[in-house]
Amino acid sequence: MKIIxxxxxGNVAKPLAQQLTAEGHDITVISSNNNKISDIESLGAxxxxxxxxxxxxxxxxxxxxxxxxxxxxxxxxxxxxxxKTVNVGKKYAEAMAETGVRRLVMLSSVGADSPVDNGxxxxxxxxxxxYRDLENVSSTFLRAGNFYINFFNDIPLIKNAGxxxxxYSAEVKVPLVHPKDIAEAAAEELVKVTSAQTIRYVVxxxxxxxxxxxxxxxxxxxxxxPWVEFSDEQTFQGxxxxxxPEEMAKLYEEMGRGIRxxxxxxxxIEHGSPIGGETKLEDFAHEFAERFNS
Length: 294
Fold this sequence. Notes:
This is NAD(P)H-binding protein. Residues 7-119 form the NAD(P)-binding domain. It comes from Chryseobacterium kimseyorum. InterPro entries: Ergot_Alk_Oxidoreductase, NAD(P)-bd_dom, NAD(P)-bd_dom_sf. The structure is a single chain. The protein is α/β, with parallel strands linked by helices. Helix content is 44%, strand content 19%. It has helices at residues 13-22, 37-42, 55-62, 81-99, 121-132, 155-161, 179-190, 209-219, 232-241, 246-261, 266-270, 281-293, and strands at residues 2-5, 26-31, 46-49, 67-70, 103-109, 138-144, 146-147, 164-166, 173-177, 197-202, 205-208, 227-229. β2, α2 (37-42) and β3 (46-49) form a beta-alpha-beta unit. α1 (13-22) crosses α7 (179-190).
């Protein structure tokens, strides 16, 4: 099959490209970085260099494809973050419609069912709706849990203050996922021949926040690291002081609030809290410890 992968050689796109090329598929990886060409080609894939905001580039790249893996790039330094995220989704949708691609797999998120109280996930909610409206296109929305690798951002807090936390309590359960588990699920979905529109939750573990402190603390030789529930204001101030732009810090504060009040986990729980990924919290703790000690 001819498959297009967005996301350059990121944490999901790279293992996805590796798996699909190993299976013998014709893979093209979209990247905005010319310096990635040799790395993409070394995987056995073709490189398409251009911007995902460029409709003509997307149309040229999508033409003739059997399926596409669609993800929106992070816009941490942007203003009007939700609007700009949705605009990328609109470009993808238009390119799909004009080139006749019949199958898409979207990297979405737990919480994308809700239009409110989910921070940056609100953009994915709108994009899912855009793709649902495409005629003669089968779609799978991979609603992924919180990326394990996001915990790397907590390393300075543990090193400097001896704590880890967020604006939700230690008793709140958070769906978690490893990027490689997302890549495996995406690879399965991209080669399916189907006319259905489906939601697939991609979660590797579902754990209380207090377990993050216990498991990571034990892995780094600091078993007494506590989980601390911050106020919304403390959460915003902490992210701002760490250098996150104000708009994104506000969105992440809102996302934490959505986890605290259960809005983000609601549909996942109603689907039976499915866990299909292999990488458990304890497995990832080895990666966390390696990064902590590096």
